[in-house]
Structures are given as structure tokens and as C-alpha cells.
Amino acid sequence: MCTVTFVPLKEKIFLVSNRDERQWRLPAIPPQFYDFTSGKIYFPKDADEGGTWFAVHENGNILALLNGGFKNHIPQPRYERSRGLILLDLAQTTNPFDNFRSINLENIEPFTLVLWSNEKLFECRWDGERKHSKQLDVSLPYIWSSATLYDDEAIARRENWFENWLDKHPEFTIDDILDFHQFNEDENRNKDLVLHQQDKIFTVSITGVEVSAGLAHLKYLDLLTNQVFLQNITFKKEIIPNL
User: How far apart are CA 144 and CA 135, in angstroms?
Assistant: First the structure.
């Protein structure tokens, strides 16, 4: 959960996330549907805490998590709950943006959340003391990089790579943008979005979703096992009561 991109293309939107983790963490459980009171949610599960960094609800909401708020922070010895469980709490609601603004985040580690809800895009940040949230222009592309791994200079450099890629790809597929998240055209391993090693942290998976006409096509790349998981999700039209 360290790099996320959002790209609109004609009648579609693409949301893609890289997960970077320490090597001692247990491998994630591959994505599948889980039943909740609010409906089915499709997500890969963190085997350590049971949460997730990327979730697609059958009501059409999509949530992607990044570690950190605006800048790197000093972790506390023990937090109340994991950020991945907070994401699942929000994913179970019909309006995760409003619920982010009302949920209690005291003693929760800082995070950034990208939300696609009711065909609107939102950015929500918790810096450990205050919440920051805003609606974004859905006609524009965006890239987010984890504040816990990248300083301002590295974030700006990645934004430049993203802009260059968009200039070269006026038309693209979900596979094209997944390639952007995994490879670099000049094969310079220091100039791509995959984290190879930094304090024993590696990119372990890439999750991408293409959304159009009430349907989500999700593709999950497990970089540790070289497995690929595909799922088509048809969004339900009826409104599921909020929790």
C-alpha cells in the first residue's frame, strides 16, 4: 500500500495499488469475496491482522490505502487497531467518505485513503492528530506515494514518471497500467514503482481495477508466487442500508 494511481479514460476509470511490505510479514491471502451485513466485499486479506489495503464492495465503492499521512512519522509501540481493519470498517458503509469524517481514529497509525464512491473520487488523510479530506476532479489523473517510504523529492520524481507515461499512452488497458506499476521502459531498476529493497521492504503485489458501466474488472498480481487472480464484479443497483 505504497503507490496508488487513478486514471480516467473515456467512460472508464482505473485504480491501481502497489503493496510494499517487510519480508517478515506473512504472505497475503489471495483476493476473494467476503460476506458482510452490507453485502459482499472483494479483497486480498492481510494474513497478520486480517485487514486489507484494497477493497471493492458490490455497492460500487472502491477503497485503496497508503501508509502515512503527509510525512513520515515515528510509529508508536502499540496502536488500537490496524489501518487495514479501519479500511474494512469504512468499506462496509454506503458512504465511506462521510464515515471517514465521523469515525474515531484516536490511537490509529497515520494513513491516506483513496475512495471511489458514487462515481466521485475522494482523498482522505489521517495524520495522527487531525483528519484531512477533499473531493477530487474525476477527469484528472493522480498518483500517490507513501509518506513513510518516500520524501518530497522522490514523490516529485515519481509524479514525473507518471506524467511521462500518460503522455506516451493516450490509450491504454488495465494491463498497460499494471505494467507501469511493475516495469520501467528503460529497465533501470532505480526508476520504476516496484520497491526492490529498502530496509528489507519489497513490493509483494499489485492490484488493479477497471470500472465501467456498473462492472469492475479486477486483476491481482502476486509478485511472490507469480500468480494472477481475475474477478469480474457486477455492482448492485439497489441501495444497501448504511451501517
Answer: 15
Residue 142 phi, psi (nearest 5)? -145, 150
In our burial notation (b when 16+ CB lie closer than 10 A, e otherwise), range 91-104 reads bbbbebbebbeeee
CATH class (in words) of the domain with range 3-234? alpha beta
pLDDT tens column, 68-114: 877 777 777 778 899 999 999 999 999 999 999 999 999 999 999 99
What is the amino acid identity at position 123?
E
Q: Domain locations in the chain?
A: 3-234
Q: What is the pTM of this model?
A: 0.90
What is the rounded CA–CA span in Å between residue 17 and residue 222?
A: 12
Closest by CA to 54, choosing from 104, 81, 99, 90, is 90
Output the nine-digit C-alpha cell for 87. Answer: 479500511
In contact, 97 and 117? CB cutoff 8 Å: yes
